[in-house]
């Protein structure tokens, strides 16, 4: 036997509420399968600590093992058992209960046991303590003792009075014996009469003369008590019959609802599979659309960014083009100025050439004069030697001047040639500069158009990006709706499954009610 320790000699009183009941259910091996809250409150264990454990988890060491052997022997025969039981609290304290245990059957086979415990009276507890103390000490119990009733004492007293009357046949002894005998008979009959009266008061449901004449023709209290008990049996039988019929209808209805719930659940599962399949395809499409939207958004964003960069570069190119135009325009002006300067310089050189020709003519005349002077000095003889020297110097200077003017003429001719080439190059440069101005101006106009076109592209890209974002939100909303469809489908299946479970539970309960009524009606 399981010995739960420690124990504390402190009693926990059962609740005073008459509706308070401790209920527990076990399998055929005494393993707890269900408990109510009152059980949990009284024993101190949690539901998790109780379910799945042997019911003797609350057995108190003071309880004799023979009581539980008697209980199991009775229950295994399919009969109910009632007893006063001392249970142990989790912390070692104890509490007394009046236990009524019945077998749970299914199709006539015991499948478990249900125990309903109520408050035990103080007298019942006192009797149980005395009985269990005797059992634990090894004393044998007697179910009946003649000394438990005062009737035996009255009978002994009557016997003594009778024997005395036989010995002393006086009138007094005879009267005394008769009184004692009458009193003894009256006491025994009064006790039985009071029991029968209480039985009639508690069970009599009708007392009309017709019924009494039929069911209690003798008119005695015993006949009325038998009639009262028979009425009570019929009353209980009528109620049980009505309950059994209602339970049968309830069972039939529960079975129909269970079949309907099962069919609905199967249909819902099939629809759920189809809905999930469609939703899965929708989800795949939306995910593909979201991916495409994301790629398109990235592309548009990249285009937008490239447009901004291109616009910036084109704007920079426009600025460079404008600066180039300004530089070429300045160069054009400078080339024009150079050409003008070259022309002016050519004119000046022409003047120098004319002056050089004049000098060359003067040099020729001077040389001629010097030659004449030398001739005249030679004619003058000694007197003309000094003049001849001067004439030679003048002639030598004239030759040098002529030579210099020749060099100047050569330089001027070379300068004219170079100046002409420079003028031609300047004219070419001027033409090129003018063409450059035209081309740069045209390029500047094209750059301006490109910048405007890029601005339009950027604006359209921004609009496209906004539209894509709006559509992305829509597609995302569709994806969320698809997820909700998945969730709602699962919830619908769960609801139908829960309904089927509830119907199964209802049918099981109806089966239990029918089974209990059948057990109660069993003779």
Could you write a compact summary of the structure shown?
The protein is of the alpha+beta class and 523 residues long. The protein is built from nine helices and five strands.
Shape assignment: rod-shaped
Question: Termini, distance in Å?
Answer: 34 Å
For the largest beta-sheet, the strand count, sense and barrel status come to: 5 strands, antiparallel
Mean pLDDT: 74
Record field, number of beta strands: 5
Helix percent reads over 70%
Q: What is the helix/strand order?
A: EEHHHEEEHHHHHH
Based on CA atoms alone, the radius of gyration comes out at: 70 Å
Task: Find the structural class using helix and strand composition.
Answer: alpha+beta
Task: Write up this protein.
The protein is an alpha+beta fold. It has 9 helices and 5 strands, in the order ββαααβββαααααα. The chain has a 5-stranded antiparallel sheet with strand order 2-1-5-4-3, sandwiched between helices. Helix 6 packs parallel to helix 8. The longest helix has 160 residues, at 221-380. The model is unreliable at 143-148 (pLDDT under 50).
SSE order and pairing:
Blueprint: E1 22-26, E2 32-35, H1 37-43, H2 47-50, H3 65-76, E3 81-88, E4 94-106, E5 109-118, H4 122-137, H5 151-167, H6 171-203, H7 209-215, H8 221-380, H9 385-521
Helix pairs in contact: 5-6, 6-8, 8-9
Q: Descriptors for this entry?
A:
523 residues; alpha+beta; five-stranded antiparallel beta sheet; 75% helix; 8% strand
């Amino acid at each position: 036997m399981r010995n739960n320790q420690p124990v504390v000699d402190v009693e926990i009183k059962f609740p005073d509420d008459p509706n308070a009941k401790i209920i527990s259910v076990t399998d055929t091996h005494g393993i707890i399968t269900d408990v109510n809250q009152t059980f949990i409150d009284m024993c101190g264990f949690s539901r998790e600590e109780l379910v799945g454990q042997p019911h003797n988890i609350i057995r108190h060491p003071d309880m004799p093992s023979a009581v539980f052997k008697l209980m199991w022997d009775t229950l295994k025969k399919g009969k109910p058992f009632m007893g006063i039981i001392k249970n142990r609290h989790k912390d070692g304290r104890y509490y007394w209960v009046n236990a009524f245990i019945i077998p749970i059957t299914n199709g006539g086979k015991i499948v478990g046991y249900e125990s309903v415990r109520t408050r035990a009276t103080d007298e019942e507890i006192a009797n149980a303590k005395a009985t269990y103390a005797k059992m634990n000490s090894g004393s044998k119990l007697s179910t009946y003792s003649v000394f438990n009733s005062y009737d035996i004492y009255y009978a002994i007293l009557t016997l003594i009075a009778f024997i005395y009357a036989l010995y002393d046949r006086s009138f007094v002894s005879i009267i005394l014996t008769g009184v004692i005998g009458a009193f003894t008979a009256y006491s025994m009959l009064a006790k039985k009469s009071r029991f029968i009266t209480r039985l009639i008061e508690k069970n009599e449901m009708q007392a009309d003369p017709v019924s009494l004449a039929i069911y209690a023709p003798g008119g005695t209290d015993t006949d009325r008590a038998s009639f009262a008990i028979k009425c009570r049996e019929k009353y209980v039988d009528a109620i049980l019959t009505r309950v059994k019929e209602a339970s049968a209808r309830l069972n039939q209805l529960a079975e129909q609802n269970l079949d309907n719930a099962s069919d609905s659940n199967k249909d819902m599962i099939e629809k759920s599979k189809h809905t999930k399949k469609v939703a899965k395809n929708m989800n795949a499409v939306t995910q593909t659309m979201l991916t495409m939207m994301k790629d398109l958004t990235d592309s548009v964003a990249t285009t937008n960014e490239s447009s901004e960069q291109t616009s910036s570069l084109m704007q920079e190119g426009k600025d460079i083009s404008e600066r180039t135009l300004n530089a070429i325009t300045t160069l054009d002006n400078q080339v024009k100025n150079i050409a003008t300067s070259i022309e002016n310089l050519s004119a000046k050189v022409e003047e120098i050439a004319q002056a050089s020709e004049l000098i060359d003519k003067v040099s020729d005349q001077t040389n001629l004069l010097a030659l004449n002077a030398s001739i005249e000095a030679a004619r003058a003889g000694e007197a003309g030697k000094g003049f001849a020297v001067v004439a030679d110097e003048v002639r030598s200077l004239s030759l040098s001047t002529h030579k210099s003017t020749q060099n100047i003429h050569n330089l001027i001719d070379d300068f004219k040639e170079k100046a002409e080439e420079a003028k031609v190059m300047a004219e070419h440069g001027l033409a090129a500069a003018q063409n450059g101005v035209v081309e740069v101006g045209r390029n500047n106009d094209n750059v301006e158009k490109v910048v405007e076109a890029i601005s339009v592209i950027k604006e359209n890209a921004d609009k496209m990006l906004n539209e894509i974002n709006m559509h992305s939100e829509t597609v995302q909303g569709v994806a969320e709706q698809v997820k909700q469809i998945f969730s709602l489908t699962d919830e619908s299946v769960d609801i139908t499954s829960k309904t089927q479970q509830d119907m199964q539970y209802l049918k099981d309960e109806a089966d239990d009610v029918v089974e209990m009524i059948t057990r109660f009606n069993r003779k």
